DNA sequence: CCTCAACTGAATATTACTGTCAATAAGGCG
DNA sequence: CGCCTTATTGACAGTAATATTCAGTTGAGG
């Protein structure tokens, strides 16, 4: 329950094959990108597309969208709603890297914070209903100090 | 801080005028709809459009989208990501009605649950950074019992 | 009651994302 | 090792939610 080890190509392959799916070079590359991302960095589909294009490892947008969705549903990635209009993704790290987001609804400035109790509450709530937990995130929508001031104008 | 009283037309007008904005019949109608919604009901933009059409109080989709966004940014409504592809909205009720969502990523079946500690943690986190809190919601992404079974096929 | 800017509605535009389909390549199996 | 099945990919076209534009309308302050 969120305490899964960090994913490797081998564990990804095992989990895919178990369901009759396949490990492809594209999926491996995408997993690697997210694993090497510094803590706090997250990518949109377009970001990832551009980044791979730059690295000469071009992967089609279709595949990127499909892979991001697949990996989110597997619990490997977290789908974040940090800005209007598109999603961001980051690797789903176990405790103690697990964190939450405080988001300014005006400028999208985001601050991360950690909280052990929340993870516990989420785990319990899922357990109680027999749900298999994939991710648990507290989203705080607020107005940052800068935007509070500019609203006075 | 989430302890605001339930909104009335008068308080909505006051808050709008303070910023140079206006109270229009459309905004009043939309506020009323959300206030009369039974607990646990939430509407998408299209839902709201259809519902108003039925009531003979037709409001254009443009205005609906604009109003939902405005009221979310004011903290009157909560923007929920309960299903893929579109948002849902509900009124932002203070404690003890404040709640969170446990969502199946496969079938979107959603269960609500309450938690006082989370509200406290969220309030504190926002305060610490000088953010003005609008809404604070724990989203648990998981697989419901039914979908867990069907995955075995 | 007058003025002016915010607001609405209709139509159009945008864009994030999904579906289709032929070609390709994982992976189980003999 | 090499074959066969079928999941997967990439290119492209399609979709749906949401944003924008703009002319006409209407709140709200003076």
Find the biggest chain interface.
A-B, 38 and 38 residues
Instruction: Please tell me the overall pLDDT of chain A.
Output: 93
Strand order of the largest sheet of chain A: 4-3-5
The CATH C-level name of chain A is Mainly Alpha
Total beta strand runs of chain A: 5
The CATH topology of chain A corresponds to Arc Repressor Mutant, subunit A
The CATH architecture of chain A is Orthogonal Bundle
CATH homologous superfamily designation of chain A: Winged helix-like DNA-binding domain superfamily/Winged helix DNA-binding domain
- Major sheet attributes of chain A: 3 strands, mixed
Total tally of structural domains of chain A: 1
Oligomer, anyone? Answer: homodimer
Order of SSEs of chain A? HHHHEEEEHEH
Q: Helix tally of chain A?
A: 6
Q: Measure the end-to-end span of chain A.
A: 47 Å
Percentage of residues in strands of chain A:
15-25%
Helix share bin of chain A: 40-55%
Structural class of chain A: alpha+beta
Brief characterization of the structure:
The structure is a homodimer of 153-residue chains. Chain A is built from six helices and five strands; from the N terminus they run ααααββββαβα.
Task: Summarize the topology.
The structure is a homodimer of 153-residue chains.
Chain A: H1 9-18, H2 25-36, H3 45-54, H4 61-74, E1 77-83, E2 86-91, E3 100-104, E4 110-113, H5 116-129, E5 132-143, H6 145-150
Parallel strand pairs in A: 3-5
Antiparallel strand pairs in A: 1-2, 3-4
The first copy, chain A, binds a DNA duplex (30 and 30 nucleotides) through helix 4.
Structure notes:
The structure is a homodimer of 153-residue chains. Helices cover 43% and strands 22% of the residues of chain A. The first copy, chain A, has helices at 9-18, 25-36, 45-54, 61-74, 116-129, 145-150, and strands spanning 77-83, 86-91, 100-104, 110-113, 132-143. Chain A is globular, with a radius of gyration of 17 Å. Chain A starts with 8 loop residues before the first helix and ends with a helix. Strand 5 of chain A pairs antiparallel with strand 5 (132-143) of chain B, so a sheet runs across the interface.
